[in-house]
Specification:
Layout: E1 6-9, H1 12-15, E2 25-28, H2 29-33, H3 47-52, E3 57-59, H4 75-92, E4 96-99, H5 102-105, H6 113-134, E5 137-140, H7 154-164, E6 169-174, H8 175-180, H9 186-191, E7 195-200, H10 217-225, E8 232-234, H11 241-259
Parallel strand pairs: 1-2, 1-8, 2-3, 3-4, 4-5, 5-6, 6-7, 7-8
Length: 260
């Protein structure tokens, strides 16, 4: 099996300084693709820059005011937004878009939770067809309860993905959020081949691998057990991203090699 690619979530322009030490940048949809701005506002990196450091993944999908739950849901706006985002994503070489967007899916106090869960599934079903049209896979990112109150575990994410029932809507496993929620590696085993992308950060301060010494190998073994062959991204808090990203990638690579 080929060695997995390990990238870093952040600005492509800034991460290009360490392109030789990381495999890719995971950019932000709202920053790079500006889906609600006219075409003239979309200025992707040139082809040469993308050959040096590709952008196969993008996160920070929806703004908080483009709601996935609650009384202000606008599926037509979501459909337009997604279609533009995904078509622009393909121009850059992005194949996976991460649907975290905690502000969009947060369930308002007093709103019926069952209805919110149904609305989120409907949102996934709305973004599925334009994703298929552009050749994009959308991955649902479970978030810990301090950041969002809907889809807080890989298990809940898998349930939403299965309910959506669209081949271009899949799942992300974020080891930081899993650790924050005390969700074990067995959740990865149960989710199986729904998992298409992985985020990594240490649990205490969301630092990159190697800072606090977190051992991710139980989760990495579970991923190997389901035959996961996708990419890994470091999604961390940084004091100096350019300085910290290469050793963080190297540490995760070391842990992956130790289970091979």
């Amino acid at each position: 099996m080929a060695e997995p690619r390990i990238g870093v979530c952040g600005s492509h322009a800034e991460l290009s300084a360490v392109a030789g030490s990381i495999d890719f940048a995971e950019e932000a949809v709202q920053r790079l693709l500006v889906p609600e701005q006219p075409d003239a506002a979309f200025t992707p990196p040139d082809r040469a820059a993308l050959e040096v450091l590709p952008i196969p993944v993008a996160n920070i999908f929806l703004p908080g005011d483009l709601r996935s739950t609650g009384p202000a849901v606008d599926l037509e706006r979501l459909r337009r937004y997604a279609r533009t985002a995904f078509l622009r994503a393909r121009q850059v070489g992005i194949g996976i878009v991460v649907y975290g967007s905690g502000g969009s899916r947060q369930v308002d106090e007093g709103f019926d939770r069952g209805r919110a869960e149904q609305q989120f599934v409907e949102a996934l079903q709305t973004v599925g067809p334009p994703a298929a049209e552009a050749g994009i896979t959308v991955v649902v990112e479970p978030l810990n309860t301090a950041e969002c109150n809907l889809i807080n575990s890989v298990t809940e994410g898998a349930e939403a993905v299965r309910a959506a029932g669209h081949p271009h809507v899949m799942l992300l496993a974020d080891l930081y959020h899993m650790l924050r929620e005390d969700e074990g590696p067995d959740a990865i085993e149960r989710a199986g081949d729904l998992i298409r992308h992985v985020h990594v950060a240490e649990v205490a301060e969301r630092t990159p691998p190697g800072v606090a010494g977190d051992d991710f190998r139980p989760f990495l073994c579970a991923l190997a057990g389901i035959g996961y062959a996708g990419d890994y991204s470091l999604e961390c808090r940084w004091s100096d991203q350019v300085a910290q990203a290469p050793p963080g990638v190297a540490e995760l690579r070391r842990q992956l090699a130790s289970i091979a």
